[in-house]
Amino acid sequence: MKLCIIGVGYVGLVTAAVFADFRNFVWGVDVDKQKIKKLKKGEVPFFEPKLKELISKNLKNKRLIFSSNIGAAIKQAEIIFICVGTPAKENGDYDLRYVFEAAKTIGKNIKKYALVCIKSTVPPSTTEELRKIISKYCAAPFEMASCPEFLREGSAIDDSLHPARIVLGVESKKGKEMLLKLHQQIKAKKYIFNIKSAQLVKYAANAYLATKISFINSIASLCEKIGADIEQVTQGLGSDPRIGDQFLQAGLGYGGSCFPKDTWALISFAQRIGYDFKFLKEVDRVNQQQIDKFIEKILQICKGSVRNKTITILGLAFKPNTDDMREARSTLIIKKLQKLGAKINAYDPKAVVNAKKILKNVSYFNELMPALNKSCLLVLVTEWPEFRKIDFNKVKKIMKEKKVIDGRNFLDSKKLKALGFQYQGIGRN
Ligand code: UDX
Ligand code: UDX
To answer: What pLDDT was estimated at residue 139?
Structure first.
């Protein structure tokens, strides 16, 4: 099939690469000309396992074309995917101006029947607005559809090839058949819904996963008060198949490009249609509170003050296996510690380049050990697998004070305590 992907950011690029690999003919277009220039050379603007290889392979096969000529890409397409960002505004409300802009460009350029499929995460009422915008400019027949993505950064290719399910929102038999054909190589169960339901599935899924995280973090707070251990509680809780053990990892709370933005968007959307989503507001409040509680912990272990103390932050990305700093918990923690007068050393295997753009006055390190030299406190923020291999016998000798705060309950607390470290996790006894 001939596809046009508008917006080759995180989601658009993965979508383009995967569909090209399924032997479709894919144009990836973007308003960012610099990005397109790099992509044409096979340079991927962010770190995502397996993506570079998939793009190179399909560039060579000429099944994948990157271009700034959005009009030409639209004209040839049978299916047009809108994958532009839907960022949150300062007040948490959603900003749909890029999807509206994409709709206008589509309207001006469709010359024959096309299926316009929204992959960007948008409130369920958006389709009608997009339809109106496209119709205003376009005489050719077109239909709308929705194809929400559920991929996680760090495992985006595997998630795309082996998803838990595929949700397709359609308004006609033709749209349904086109999308089923496009996804035929993926073995997962396919759900065909109306467009509004499909879009609500996406918000509901992210809001529910965020809820699980805030819930377990609340239970972790109880653990701290009574001397229970969240790791044990989670094991017992998660082994009930009705509950499940995923997304129950207590820690610093959720960050990233989706959970915070999508919970805020759902709260805003609900407000607009007359429903006060108090429950989800609380999920968000707990998530914000995790940071304040964590700072309290740091102050406590540092005997009330971090002024002029060197604190080492391990892990900056919003989660492991990505260099994405969007809504990363490290940002809030570092800014708060800096306000309190701390000197920050930071190490991350992939995210330093992006972190430098948003966090100033931080000493960044390309290697882990030097970042800990003469440090008063090690703070683990992102659970990169390599942190499990840290040689704490060596660390012991180079740190000024043997103190560790583990924001992801990732390190071996027993081992650390045996080595003489003062250790604190989240809700860990
Ligand atoms: C996507 C979105 O679909 C979002 O709604 C969803 O919740 C998560 O996934 P993401 O791919 O992470 O967002 O965004 P980003 O990496 O910022 O990419 C968006 C791309 O669209 C950028 O490359 C940007 O240059 C491009 N863009 C933006 C356009 O091509 N046209 C525009 O008008 C605006
Ligand atoms: C998420 C959804 O999982 C995905 O389906 C959707 O399409 C996009 O949003 P992503 O943001 O890439 O994916 O990462 P995810 O692995 O879900 O983690 C999000 C945040 O939650 C991270 O900050 C992570 O550290 C945190 N998290 C996750 C927890 O704190 N505890 C957990 O148990 C799981």
So the answer is: 86
Q: Is 258 noted as a catalytic residue in this protein? A: yes
Considering only CA atoms, which residue is closest to atom 5 of ligand 2? 150
Give backbone dihedrals phi and psi of 116, rounded to 5 degrees, phi first: -100, 110
Any ligand 1 atom below 6 A from CB of 121: yes
- β-pairing verdict for 362-365 and 343-347: parallel
Query: pLDDT by residue (tens digit) across 25-42?
Result: 999 999 999 999 999 999
The string of pLDDT tens digits covering residues 215-272 is: 999 999 999 999 999 999 999 999 999 999 999 999 999 999 999 999 999 999 999 9
Q: In angstroms, what is the span from residue 164 Cα to ligand 2's centroid?
A: 15
- State the pTM of this model: 0.96
- φ/ψ of 64, rounded to 5, equals -125, 125
Q: Tell me the two tokens of residue 89.
A: 């505004």
Residue 429 in this model has a pLDDT that exceeds 80: no
CA-nearest of 106, 276, 116 to 195 is: 116
For 64-73, the pLDDT digits (tens) are: 999 999 999 9
Residue 363 CA to residue 361 CA, distance in Å, equals: 7
Q: Is the CB of 258 inside a 6 Å radius of any atom of ligand 1?
A: yes
Q: What is the mean pLDDT of residues 351-379?
A: 97
Q: What is the largest CA-CA distance in the chain?
A: 74
Measure 200 CA to ligand 1 centroid, in angstroms.
19
186 CA distance to ligand 1 centroid (A)?
24
CB count, 10 Å around CB of 87? 14
> Coil, strand or helix: which one is 417?
helix
> Which of 25, 35, 21 lies closest to 5, judged by CA?
25
Residues 6 or more apart whose Cβ sits within 8 Å of residue 145: 115, 116, 117, 118, 168, 169, 170, 171, 175, 179, 195
